[in-house]
């Protein structure tokens, strides 16, 4: 009988290899986390890191809303206010949303494709730990001479060329986070393409894996573009180049072109994994197969490809020629089509399903409702003459928060409630989950819906003060923002924390009746090592046979 090596290189003989593999010495204490190579532990680290950054970015948002509660300058001067808006954007995009989705990917992709782990376990560890110094540098920039960067999260020249030393720290931090994203993407692509269980063809993969595969390719394509833009900014600041400095023959508008060539695919990077999560949750609670699986795959791919040809719709007011405006206007309208295909497919999946509305489904339906509203305001902003009026007003703020907060964040909550029983081994409290949903949905709309009216009335964004006619809607938005912030604190203290400590009713192996997929074939909580021998799949690639 031949010897089988277990993951630690010890020979285990015959059939005992399989029996022993659940308890071979998961590392304990701090070493388990610092030297983590297990995809589940790294996924947990990513999720905790991103929630911490969500809280930091959220505090900055609340400081912004506190200042805007009434006209006049209450708490901070305009310079500090601009630092808050800049850092709120950078921290939320690079510190909260992106790492959170990587956390979901680390936890779920190996489980969903039947792989034993991610392809490059040590690189996985490295890509997480890179985020810590980057985050410290970003947040620490407030304490540098001259304060944090105050050029807006888009870091437009020539403002960036006039900032203090914190700008350099911000550039370095974004380089490091970009490197982390690229490594994470390589890992995800190789895991999905090379480590699927026998019998799981690409067109039998769960939608979450598809959306992340496409997102990972997008990340590899555009993170170097951002790196180029901020490196050119750095050389303009310190090495005498004039890429963006008009005094030396440079062009500040060129920065915008380069930035948005990264920035527009980036907004899809922040929403495609959310589409994947919703495509897992809706069929489970409608107890039906996902309607139009193949069309969902093609729609996701179309969104990714089209995202590269719409970047200048952020730049309608920079004086581009009419033909340019027309091209970007029509391209932007075109990208709404595959997005609409997805919305249609989710609704068709729910149609005549035997639906129940546990918390994951509530967040999924909430996501579809609010994301669709954000999509419509995006379509309005795609029309160049309208955008010229609304550019840089609160209408734009409302639009992208409907897409990103209600989009990315609500989908993450849906995914958390759906998969957390598998992660922790206990069921969350359903009543508390529903309270979190309704509290979040109502306070979110109270915060951001009035901003549409503020923008239509002409209130510019990133201003610390405003005329009296904007006072009422700003007061409403500020009150809503504080309620929304406290809802997320409630979520952590009363839902996440008890689950992490194992408090609650024990979760079944498959807690949701309609759920399908390999992740429900392992016990709850998922053991430290899973799928050491690749599972053999049935014809649908959702169940293990034999």
From TrEMBL:
It catalyses: 4 Fe(II)-[cytochrome c] + O2 + 8 H(+)(in) = 4 Fe(III)-[cytochrome c] + 2 H2O + 4 H(+)(out). It is a multi-pass membrane protein. Residues 7-23 have a biased composition (Basic and acidic residues). InterPro entries: Cyt_c_oxase-like_su1_dom, Cyt_c_oxase-like_su1_sf, Cyt_C_Oxase_1, Cyt_c_Oxase_su1_BS, Cyt_c_oxase_su1_dom, Cyt_c_oxidase_su1_bac. Pathway: Energy metabolism; oxidative phosphorylation. Residues 24-538 form the Cytochrome oxidase subunit I profile domain. It is found in: Cell membrane; Membrane. It comes from the Bacteria. GO terms for cellular component: plasma membrane; respiratory chain complex IV. The keyword Transport applies. GO terms for molecular function: cytochrome-c oxidase activity; heme binding; metal ion binding; oxidoreductase activity. Belongs to the heme-copper respiratory oxidase family. Cytochrome c oxidase is the component of the respiratory chain that catalyzes the reduction of oxygen to water. Subunits 1-3 form the functional core of the enzyme complex. CO I is the catalytic subunit of the enzyme. Electrons originating in cytochrome c are transferred via the copper A center of subunit 2 and heme A of subunit 1 to the bimetallic center formed by heme A3 and copper B. This is Cytochrome c oxidase subunit 1.
